[in-house]
Amino acid sequence: MDTTASRVTRHYACLGNLLDEDRTAEMSTCDLVLTSQGKEFKVHKNVLMMFSDYFRNMFTIEMKEKYEKVIEIKEMPYQRLGNLIEFIYSGSITLTKENMFDVLQDALYAQIKSLESTCFEFISENISADNCLKAIIFARQCNNNKILNEAYEAIFNNMNKLQNNEGFLELDIKDLTTIVTWKKQHVAEDSFKAIVQWVNHNQSQRKNLFGSLFCQLQLTSVTHDALTRISEESLVKENLQCSNKLVKAFAQLKYPQCQHKFLLMGGYDSETDCVAFDVITKTSKYLPKLNFPRCAATTVKVGSRVYIVGGADNQGEGHPYQSCELLDLNDLENGWKPMSNMLEPRKWCRSGTCREKIYVTGGYDHQCLSSCEEFDIQNSKWMSISNMRQARYVHATVVLNDMVYCIGGVNNTTFHFSSCECYDVRSGKWNVIAPRNEARSGLASVVLDGKIYAIGGRDDGKRISTVETYIPEANKWLFVESLHLARSCPSACVLAGKIFVIGGWHGSSRLNSVEIFDPTTEDWSFSFKTKKPVYAATVAAI
Question: What pTM does this model have?
Fold first, then answer.
């Protein structure tokens, strides 16, 4: 049905076309010529005034241009002036990532509100690492908080890429402070590097700002390796306020006073469960479930992210996984996210983290594996590293002083063994270390106060309760106080300077008891019981 509204719309379109055609007609009624760089454009003053506040002001107040027949627009190259005139007459313009800021600049110059809005919408959808610094300039000029916040987000997410960019180095202190602390749990080392680059760009005027910027950083999620690198920066060393903050961060990392929870993931009869336990209140809370059922997997925590790697379904009897997933504890709403697959499927493998990388050792895939892999967190990429000297699975892996230690386990020919070896992440080589006093597989292991603890396990078909500690300086294993209950394949972690050992297999049943080791008294004690028995689960202190 041909409505009045549609007829009016067609009429307006026809009028616009006629006016546009009149600009090139032989007997044109145009009453003004705009020029730029020697190019001329015939236009109608009334049309310009209808769309542009700039031209309306020019032709309605006493300016000399009001009476001129030819006006030069020096601020705009002729191609852009032609595009602007085309928009005024037709309502259309081609916007691209390459020209969007130029078109916005021209719209602001000509004071064309409709085109400004179109540009802002397009820019908002296309902000990236390549243009976010430029976006800040226009957002501030136009007082557009939406574009400004989106630019901040893009800069924050691309800090490593942009920190040497001239535009980044010329940011003012207000913008920089907002960017480096953009998220509550920001990537503090990346933010730190950006601050150092910014201060060093003009150190004579900015050095006094470093302390206040540094104190904005949240160092609670930074690894020991990262803190060490930060401590080596001269700007930190020369600032007492920064040095004190760093000392507190190291202390918090060693004995986190607020860290009183552990996260149990997967395991027998709980393959997709992810449960947080509070050891003070002795309560539990279910977090988002894993995407895949996992038994005999391995876990590390880096910053606010928990990574779970490998494992198998069907109570650990299924085919091993290559897949891995991660949970950001600051973004629980989005649950577990898939990450890059390992190079090989593995179950009963073990892992540790060092220098912003994850190391996964051994495991089982139709046979016992000696192969190992390294995951570069920054680049989300897996790489092979040197094979262990001894293939092993159901072993233990911990990291201490840039060394990845592999302890005990089972191989293809020996049921249980006591051999141990360590991988130097700097040289890329494996070296044999002293064997344990007692052969064991299915053990748990943690690092506490510079010592490695090998806890429980299985030897010659029986579960064992003994515990040994390794002193790297002496290359020696010593027995310490035994567990109250023998356990194989328990889970273990360190909270507030104490060792927590959870569940395991007692010989005829799975356990739900939790034992705690206090190194000051060298005694084990029972803490609490989990609602369900725990076996072949993986754990992370959170």
Answer: 0.61
